[in-house]
Give the backbone structure.
Amino acid sequence: MNMSPEEYDKLAKKASPNSPFLKNLISAFLIGGGICALGQGFLLWYQRLGIDRDTASAWASITLVFLSILLTGLDLYDSIAKVAGAGTLVPITGFANSMSSAAIEFKSEGWVLGLGAKMFIIAGPVIVYGVSASVIYGILYYIFG
Amino acid sequence: MAHRIGKYTIVLDQPPSILATAAIGSKKEREGPLEKSFDFICDDPYFEQDSWEKAESIMQTKAVNTALGKAGLQPQEIDAIFAGDLLNQCVGSSYGLRELGIPFMGVYGACSTMAESLLGASVFLDSGALNRAVACTSSHFCAAERQYRFPLEYGGQRTPTAQWTATAAGAAVLGKDGPSPYVRAVTIGTIEDLGITDANNMGAAMAPAAAVTIQRFMEDTGKKPSDFDLVITGDLGKVGSDLVRDLLLREGIKLENSHTDCGLMLYDLEKQDMHAGGSGCGCSAGVMCGHILPLMREDTLHEIVFVATGALMNPTVVQQGESIASIAHLVYLSTKKEGGAV
């Protein structure tokens, strides 16, 4: 067969449908926005119960994390994420899902080398680079702040 | 004894008979159009085991035992079994078949394993080294996902070119003598790589391998795709099927009206939201052993060219930036023991 990788790349790209960009964008906006609105709702509700703003804010995050893990365990989160895409990935719910889904998946290899080690298989890089970025920010803030 | 025609094709002079076949599937396979082709379907993807890997092994055990039962044979009457799957070190096969006591040849050809195991078994039978053999292949969606991609419950979005790994197994019992269908010729594939790096577009990665093997077989035999009832590719899915037709057309081989793909047959792509189609070596194993070979036995289909395609990568090399190397093995099946294309 007489075809260079460059020619084939063009052919393959033409044959491969792209992700439905606009549809994905709108569902991510609506569902992601909905999750944030829900978080805001919890925040206001906790404040109305007389909790101070900082504590209420932490409680709102904890509630979203709890709901995310619950839905992951009930085999519902991935069905929502299938439609929502980045809408469920970007908020704190995505982080909770990435850890709990790995924990469920790798439990069959035991508590230590399975669940314990593999739990961070997706979330690990977020922690590593998140912490690294915050350290760099801290140094810059110390020097120029 | 087998002899070669052209550069690549091996013609079997004592064409082995496919004595019996069996296919095992799960829930998605039940929901697809080929539900009735499966001998056994377990809606529980665990197959009453406690891990996906054990489930896949049980599927192989069941596929082989069912096929042996249909052929009226006991495991001790089988001289060798050629089997493979997608799991690391092919544990689906070795643990699924360890109780049978049949001499075992582990085969790895990724999704091309059904053709590869049929090919190996047939050449051994033709040579007279074996009297009866089994070819068996499986894949399990959940076991494959965790090895190649993400945890099942992870909320990711699949691209339109992604294919769905079948939870299916197929087994074929072959004998030196017996009724139709027969394995008449085989073409061993070469490793092809046209530089596709997207692991979510296996169809595009594997299409060149299928095109090369089909072209060689047609050139070696002097035939064209329309001389056969069907040229059925392994699991190229929608994207790969379009590409293989296009690639062959450029070589002057018109595949269009004689071609289908196992990945397009196993599921209802729209209704089941399967994106580009089915994949995994259980896909072509299930479709061939459950659907196509039985249709040949009842004389509905007569001349079949089965070309199973496999992507030979693993997650490590893909993460290291390697492109996806692929292969396609071809098995020519006929209801006639003589005549036909070879």
Notes: Chain B has two domains: 16-175, 182-334. Chain B has a mean pLDDT of 97. Chain B has ten helices and 15 strands.
